[in-house]
Write a structure and sequence with these properties.
By secondary structure, the chain is mostly beta strands. The protein has a domain at 12-43. Helices cover 0% and strands 26% of the residues. The protein contains no helices and 3 strands. It has strands at residues 17-23, 26-32, 39-40. A hairpin with a 6-residue loop joins strand 2 (26-32) and strand 3 (39-40). The termini are far apart. The relative contact order is 0.16.
């Protein structure tokens, strides 16, 4: 650690992130797992990739 470099640990620099960009009917999703740069995400996300909110997935009767 001579002031000219930095050593990062094994943990992600940031947490997993996903951003949805939309314009009219078009939509683009970019994301990262925290270890690499943001990339365009394709395909349908799996349950492992999408955190469920408490109560999400349960239908509320009218």
């Amino acid at each position: 650690v001579d002031g000219r470099s930095i050593v990062l640990g094994p943990e992600p620099v940031i947490g997993a992130q996903k951003v949805v960009l939309s314009l009219d009917e078009r939509q683009l999703v970019v994301g990262t797992q925290g270890l690499g740069p943001f990339q365009v995400m394709t395909g349908e996300p799996t349950l492992d990739e999408v955190p469920l909110l408490e109560g999400a997935g349960h239908a509320n009767p009218p």
